[in-house]
Amino acid sequence: MKTTERSSILIIYTGGTIGMIENPETGALENFGIEKFRSFVPELKHLKYRIDVLTFTPPIDSSDMNPTHWTEIANIISKNYLRYDGFVILHGTDTMAYTASALSFMLENIGKPVIITGSQLPIGQLRTDGKENFLTSVEIAAAKTADGEPCVPEVCIFFDSLLMRGNRTTKINSEGFNAFRSYNFPPLAHAGITIKYDTRLILRPDKQKPFTPHFKLDDHVIVLTIFPGIRQDYVERLLDFEGLKAVVLKTYGSGNAPLRPWLVNLLRKLSENGIIIVNITQCPKGAVEMKRYETGLQLLQVGVSNGYDATLECTITKLMYLIGEGFSRKEIVRWMNTDIAGEISIQ
To answer: Per the confidence metrics, is the pTM higher than 0.90?
Structure first.
C-alpha cells in the first residue's frame, strides 16, 4: 500500500467533540473552528499530499444531524468527486453510524474512500483520541494500492485503530475510546505500527458503471421496539398517523415477537395498507431468522420483511433512501432483501 504526493484529500468538518474546546466559565464543550483545529494538529504540515478543508457553518452537534445534512454532505462529495482522491468527514459520535449508513446508499458505486471519524475527547485535550483518529483517517483516505487504485473505495468509520464498513457499524460506548463496533462484519483494516487491510472484504466499484449520487430521502419511518408488557393502545397510537411508510420492528433474539392476536392483526393491517415492516433483532450480534420459531414465522406470514443482520442505523437509512427514490412497496421489499452496499449477509 502506498500514498503519493499527488494524493489530495478533502476534509469535511461537520462538528462534534473532536472540534470542541471547554468553556472556562461554564465547563461546557463548544466548537472552536477549523483554523484553531489546525493548530492542535501541526503534523498536518508534514503530510505529503494536498489537504483542503470545508466547514459546516455553523458546525452541527451530531445529535442535531438529520437527513438534510446527509444530503449536504453527499452534495459536497459529488461536486468535488473528480478533484480529490479521498474524503475525510469529521463528525460527532452520537449519530456517526447513521450518517455512515446513509452515505453508503446515497453514494452509489463510490470509487474513492469516504472515511468518517471523530473522537471521545476534544482534540485540544492532552489525552485526546482525536489526533490519532484524524491523522490515520487521512492516511487511509490517501492510501493507494501498487496499481494506483484507492485501498478502501467505500464509506467507512475509523475509530480506535479499527476501520469498519460504515453501514455495519454502531456506537456501543459513550465513555471509552472504543466507541464503535461492527458486530456482524469484520473490520476492513487494523491500524497499529502499520495499517493492515483485509483486501478480501473491501468493496470495489463496478468500473462499467458511473459513480451515482442520490439526494432524496424520505423520513416517514418509525421504530417499534418489542418488550414484555407492551401495550396495545400505546402501539396503536404510535403507528396511527398519516404519512407513515415504513416501520422498523425490533424483536427478540432471531426475530421473535409475542403471540398476541392484536399485534399480529395490527401488523397485518399495516402491511395490507402498503406500510413496509422490517424485522431486525434487538441483539447487537446475530441475525433474524423468522422461520426458526413460530413466534417469528407468524410475522413472516403477515407480510413482515426479514432484516437479516442489519444494524438499526442501516435499516432506517436504507428505508429512507429506497422510499426517497420512489420505488414501489414491492420493489422496496425486494431491495430490503438484497445486499446493495455490503450492509447485510444473506445465506
So the answer is: yes
